[in-house]
Predict the structure of Aldo/keto reductase.
Amino acid sequence: MNYRILGRTELNVSVIGVGTWQFGGEWGMNYTQEMVDQILDAAHEVGINLIDTAECYGDHLSEQLIGGYISRHKREDWIIATKFGHEFHNLFSRTDRFDSQSVVKQLDNSLKALQVDYIDLYQFHSGPDAAFDQDELWETLDKQVQAGKIRHLGISIGKNNNIHQVKRATEVGAKAIQVVYNRLDRVPEEEVFPACAKQDLGVLARVPLASGFLSGKYKPGATFASNDVRHRQDAEHQAKLLQEVERIAQEELPEGVDMASWALAWCLKHDAVTTVIPGCKTAEQVRANAAAVALL
């Protein structure tokens, strides 16, 4: 495994992390503690130390499953990133909650679910600029940093061209940006990455496999179960993406190289990107993701 310092933090993160939205049940599977244990055991074995989750992946469900694992292992072996800003109601249904009082409650609930005393990276989660621009919110979060509940603040931007929040990152005390970035979506290269470089912000690239399309497993016409978030995406757009994946496989993918490994390494070769956080459904997928470091 390779490691990089995340921006202006002292966090030495593995270049491959574990994304855990799937643990909340919105990617076509429900997870048991045993399944999560196997995934995180595999991550530890290959040197991965970064787990990314959120309060609304289930009603703190993803965090609870991670906490069930962390409580039985060494806390210091892991860098835990989670997020705030949404109240989960049921699958695919959330309400924004970015007022300072709600955020403190979310933080305390996340700490309880994760069974930890502090969170390494606490991220503003895909909220609108009006919510982001509340001075009271960031003052409250700074107090939580001073209290030791949070080590560092970050911003997970909801739109890849949200330069407003990125440009204000240092001003509000954030040291890392999370953004969708992959071979099929290069929008962050235009403005977001230069702004991150200017401020020395760490970058977590989410959806680096383009919701699994860059895994090489799916062909045009692929369908998804009703409890899989991809079922809700525009079918015509999906078809175009899968056609582009076929072109990439024919014209860009080196012979004999696994597409998923190539796609993860492709993201990591951009100077702005610190780490990628692909989702994974099994321990075998964790090990396959980690193999991408051989291509760097």
Notes: The domain at 3-295 is CATH 3.20.20.100 (TIM Barrel). The chain has a mean pLDDT of 93. The first strand starts at residue 3 and ends at 5.
